[in-house]
Amino acid sequence: MTDLSSRRIYAPVKTMAMLLENAEYHECACFxxxxxxxxxxxxxxxxxxxxxxDALPASRCVVEGLYLKMSVLNLPIDCLLPERTVVQLIxxxxxxxxxxxxxxxxxxxxxxxxxIRNILRVIAVRRPDIREKxxxxxxxxxxxxxILVSRRxxxxxxxxRMTLPEALKLEVRKHISHLKQTLEKLELCMDKRHLLKxxxxxxxxxxxRNDIQDRLFSNKSLLNAFEPIQNYSQLTCLLQxxxxxxxxxxxxxxxxxxxxxxxxxxxxxxxxxxxxQRYIAGYGRILNxxxxxxxxxxxxxxxxxxxxxSDKLRHPPTFSSxxxxxxxxxxxxx
Length: 334
Hints:
GO biological process, one term: mitochondrial protein catabolic process
Mean pLDDT: 77
Helix content: 55-70%
Shape: rod-shaped
Structural class: mainly alpha
Largest sheet: 2 strands, antiparallel
Strand content: under 5%
Number of domains: 2
Radius of gyration: 36 Å
């Protein structure tokens, strides 16, 4: 590649970087709109996608313009880091829902939802796997919220409801009491005289019917003494519940840590229930938009559908699903 061709390719990238550095987002969107398709194709992997995503929502017009134009040109959108885009949109939408008045219409409360829809429509059609990942993440958040709001009480052997530590304390005391009772019965059942004779190896005599009967009754008494311990399953159930709670708490902490790393703006010592509720709603709102856009894949506009010449793009994007191409209004998504 010659120096001249290199300058031709990277000059647009330099221009975009300068406009973004000065926060001239609308001018940058217009510049992208005027850019030839061949030029955009050549600089696709040099686009400052990370900076654009991090600047959302301020850079929304630039991000929208890139997604729409690259979709019309049938270019891969992976260079725009769509997963990162979605995370930033979730973060923005969740914060917007928090600040919006209760019961307000999301569309009227946020005038930029049309731009969000346009971005998500492209991602939903070109990267359907992202929507599945969002469903999985939302499901994990719902499970963690269920863990937090569920009643942390358990049942005891006498049908009481109490916290797990209290129940364990009660059942351990009962178990100790049963052990003491069993030990007392065991001592009563043992005939010390027979025990001493059994220890004497010189003591041998024929065993008669009464001896067998006495031994039978004695062994049954021993078994009855051990029955409360042998069938004592409540303590085992409580220990299993304790292990389950430990694993559940680990899951909640791991989920919150991942969410905190993704969204960054979440305080470390926040109320987890509130955070999970907000982001479940935020994920749901983004997923609803992507779900609405999924059927649009049948009406995707490609290079074969229209005679597109990027140098004939005469107007900046209107931040809706309508683009002005070669003097005609074309709906990219129907």
